Amino acid sequence: MAYNLKSESEVKEYINNLGIEYRFGCYSEKKPEVCHLLADFLESIKKDYEKAAKVYRNNCDEYKYGKSCLKYGTYSMLGRGTKKSDYKTAYDYFEKGCNLEEPDSCLNQGLLLITKNDKPELQHDVIKGMQLLEKACKSKNANACYYLSGMYIVGVKKDPKAGTTATVSEVSKKEEFQVPKDMTKAFQFALEGCSLGNMYSCANLSQMYAKGDGVEKNDQMAEKYKALALEMQKEVQSNKTLGFQQGLPP
């Protein structure tokens, strides 16, 4: 049946039928990918975050669907569709998603370990966090590559007091660093991030080529990556729309 999507009544019928289709595919046919679409539908169309959270969680636990683990982890972290924000539960579900080869879950799990926090339920672990970012980067997650590049640009200092991180500019160069500054690695991860479409990685590449940091100085390459970063920025500004069935951003 063809719907006239300019007709309000037909749009409502279409949306209602879509929900019925997703429920049948999830609950009767037990298709994990359809369960995830059902949760996206509940989130984006119905705005029923509590029901969406339950479907995401069940789809992760019962059907081992990595994208649903990622979404429920995000819900738990934000307190969306749940009683309150719970970073430990968020971490656990990001871990499940990462183990199911969902790169964004590896990224989020790693960031929870790396970033400064006052959450006693999560142990600060920069090395493990960076390993998770590397796994995400190798799985073509551009943001993970970018974060790794940034960490190698500034280094990560050991902080025996609170287990927090600090940049090179905040401490004496004589201090011992848990992760030392390494411009060669910074360049490699920036190159990977840029090739995957991260405009900040491209901007960093431009600076590295301009200064000769981690790579031989090359003004032509510096201009090339500067232009690429600016072009990506224009695309981002002109494409700020939500695609159908993508769901809400975390």
What is the CATH topology descriptor of the largest domain? Serine Threonine Protein Phosphatase 5, Tetratricopeptide repeat
Q: CA-to-CA gap between the ends?
A: 34 Å
Poorly predicted tracts of residues = 162-171, 241-250
Which strands sit side by side, in order, in the main sheet? 1-2
Count of alpha/pi helices = 11
What's the total number of strands?
2
* Rg on CA atoms, Å: 22 Å
Global mean pLDDT? 88
- Hey, roughly how much beta strand do the residues contain? under 5%
- Biggest beta sheet attributes: 2 strands, antiparallel
What is the H level of CATH, i.e. the homologous superfamily of the largest domain? Tetratricopeptide repeat domain
Order of helices and strands: HHHHHHHHEEHHH
CATH class of the largest domain: Mainly Alpha
Q: Return the structural class.
A: mainly alpha
* CATH architecture field of the largest domain: Alpha Horseshoe
Percent of residues in helices: 55-70%
Structural domain tally? 2
Specify the overall morphology. Answer: globular
InterPro entries: HcpB-like (IPR040239), Sel1-like (IPR006597), TPR-like_helical_dom_sf (IPR011990)
Protein name: Cytochrome c oxidase assembly factor 7 homolog
Keywords: Repeat
Family: Belongs to the hcp beta-lactamase family.
